[in-house]
Amino acid sequence: MNMRNALLLAVIPLAACLSANAWAAGTPGDYNDDGSISREEFRNQAAKAAFAADKNKDGFIDADEFKLTDEQRRAMDSNGDGKVSVEEFQAGQVAGFDALDKNKNGTLEASERGR
Ligand SMILES: [Ca+2]
Ligand SMILES: [Ca+2]
Ligand SMILES: [Ca+2]
Fold first, then answer.
1. Global pTM?
2. How many domains does the chain have?
């Protein structure tokens, strides 16, 4: 499979899950409270999610810390060391934001969040 497609398949559910959770919880990712999530707001949210997922704080998202399929794991492992680092996880989330931002205006509106 094309690597880019694999990455998009991997990150879209994560990004959708993240933004849905953010909205369900009263839009904590929407720091300026303007009703949409900017790329910068999403990046902050993704950083928090990545650090929170690394429960033992070893800098890597292990299999028992966040459930990823083998394909998602490979797609996110951009340096090919067989492990998904906090940085790689975060980059995957941001790639998901770009995939969800269909009109490419740098924010996720309600219609783009999917629910
Ligand atoms: Ca870890
Ligand atoms: Ca890696
Ligand atoms: Ca948009």
1. 0.71
2. 1
